[in-house]
Design goal:
The complex is a heterodimer of chains A (114) and B (116). With 114 residues, chain A is mainly beta. Helix content of chain A is 0%, strand content 59%. Chain A has strands spanning 4-7, 10-14, 19-25, 30-38, 44-51, 56-59, 62-67, 72-77, 86-94, 102-104, 108-113. In chain A, the strands form two sheets. In chain A, strands 2, 4, 5, 9, 10 and 11 form a six-stranded mixed β-sheet that branches. Chain A has a five-stranded antiparallel β-sheet with strand order 1-3-8-7-6, with no helix packed on it. Chain B is an all-beta fold. Chain B is built from no helices and eleven strands. Chain B has strands at residues 5-7, 10-13, 19-24, 31-38, 42-50, 53-56, 65-71, 74-79, 88-95, 106-107, 111-115. In chain B, strands 2, 4, 5, 6, 9, 10 and 11 form a seven-stranded mixed β-sheet that branches. The chains are: A mainly beta (114), B mainly beta (116). The interface between A and B is medium-sized, with 26 and 24 residues.
């Protein structure tokens, strides 16, 4: 069974700092990996999606990397802003059989202090 | 473009009552997913549909839970009878065909369910 772990569970940084969020997964047979952002009382917003054949994806100040063989992904946020405060979740899409379900990590709660 | 629309946003009811959660996916999306989020267990997939057909319902916790998708633009998740341990935020998500594996799932804002 696929397990997804995110470390740390919570992170607080001053504004302007660059930071890295970590995600690890136990089964490397994945189709893709997604990073989501969740604001309080809201649903999930997809930030970046990396296919299993890719090493990284970039969107603005965000950069996500994927090392499938080691079962790891990182989300790099450059020049953090208070508006980046949210919970960040990673999720992997399995490639076995006909299943198309995402397995989520428990998230990292990020607070960027002004 | 309208995103995934869920209703109601909040539901408070007494145990034993029937609860129906509703979802309108993004137009043109082939897949629809129902998730449940709790502090203890995080986000869990309950069931998903492809072209209105249930594909995997192994995440549905018990027979009190049922889901339907009568057409491409509407799905319901029903709990009957409801119990306090069903209290959670229930999310609906939709995505385009995932055959090429590069289509993200788009989530609604969720229904916060409280069973007293």
């Amino acid at each position: 069974k696929q397990e997804v772990t995110q470390i740390p569970a919570a992170l607080s940084v001053p504004e302007g700092e660059n930071l890295v969020l970590n995600c690890s997964f136990t089964d490397s047979a994945i189709y893709n990996l997604q990073w989501f952002r969740q604001d309080p009382g809201k649903g999930l917003t997809s930030l970046l999606l990396i296919q299993s054949s890719q090493r990284e994806q970039t969107s603005g100040r965000l950069n996500a990397s994927l090392d499938k063989s080691s079962g790891r992904s990182t989300l790099y946020i450059a020049a953090s802003q208070p508006g980046d405060s949210a919970t960040y979740l990673c999720a992997v899409l399995l490639s076995s059989g006909s299943a198309r379900q995402l397995t989520f990590g428990s998230g990292t709660q990020l607070t960027v202090l002004p | 473009d309208a995103g995934v629309i869920q209703s109601p946003r909040h539901e408070v009811t007494e145990m034993g009552q029937e609860v129906t959660l509703r979802c309108k996916p993004i137009s043109g999306h082939d897949y629809l997913f129902w998730y449940r989020q709790t502090m203890m267990r995080g986000l869990e997939l309950l069931i998903y549909f492809n072209n209105n057909v249930p594909i995997d319902d192994s995440g549905m916790p018990e027979d009190r839970f049922s889901a339907k998708m009568p057409n491409a633009s509407f799905s319901t998740l029903k709990i009957q009878p409801s119990e306090p341990r069903d209290s959670a935020v229930y999310f609906c998500a939709s995505s385009l065909k995932q055959g090429d594996s590069n289509q993200p799932q788009h989530f609604g804002d969720g229904t916060r369910l409280s069973i007293l």
